Amino acid sequence: MALLSMTGFGKAEGTLSSRRFSVELRTVNGRFLELNLRLPREFSSLEGKVRMRLQERLQRGSVQCSVQLAGDAATAVGARSLDEAQAALYLGFQETLLAKYGSQLAPMGVHGLLTLPGVLRNDETEMDDEALWAVLEPVLDAAIEKTSAHRAAEGENLRKELLFRLDRLGKFLDEVEKMLPERLVSAKERLNKSVAELMGSHAPDGERMEQEIALMVDKLDVTEEIVRFRSHNALFAKTIDSEGPHGKKLGFLLQEMGREANTLGTKSLYAPMQHIAISLKEELEILREQTMNVE
Questions:
Q1: Residue 208 pLDDT grade (very low, low, confident, very high; cuts 50, 70, 90)
Q2: Residue 214 pLDDT > 60, yes or no?
Q3: How far apart are CA 264 and CA 274, in angstroms?
Q4: Where in the chain do CATH 3.30.230.10 domains reside?
Q5: Pick from 142, 14, 7: which is nearest to 64 by CA?
């Protein structure tokens, strides 16, 4: 499964009787799948089906789904019929209120009456949920397909960037390994110098010095950190090309790599290696920012 970005856009159009409608999807990054729907009254009964379809197709991210029906529902009179009984009911209410409150109220007029719920019936779109879903479903699926294609294209760009950063991490670790013998010599020299300054003309005990050097070498050894870092690096690259979703697992691996970079910097006690540890952390931060947009 390809690496997917959480950033995407897709739009598709269809027809409900004689009226055009569109489904538009916009997705951005998010910790979980968060759905925000905007449906016109004609499709409001299908909100559950729309949510279920989006949950089936999208794993993670903040999703804005908007269904727009062409024409003003209040003024599309040509596709409507008048419910005179409902209109008479509203007019009766108006007469009662005017008789009671008089000049405090203004008559609503014809336009105001026609905008009240139930006065105009939309004869074209009075369909049951099954028939409505048959109209909406293929358009929603088309919008999802376009959004997924956009997310896949963005995901491929992310994949290339992530692999580039992983390669840089590997090269930094190569530099660290090349420095290990030099760093050990430098540490021994510092230890001998410190002991000589403390002992003065008294020669240090040779066996004790060897023990101290052995302890120092053990404390300074970063072989395990490098091995674990490389293992996380390899697993990160493997995860990118595995079955998704990927984002949470990649985030966990970055946390583990960060721990190894911190330990390496703390144990190095050697300026060139500490500088590389800082570079490792900088690359990891870039990776963290990039993976925040991976599904």
A1: low
A2: no
A3: 8
A4: 8-74+128-153
A5: 7
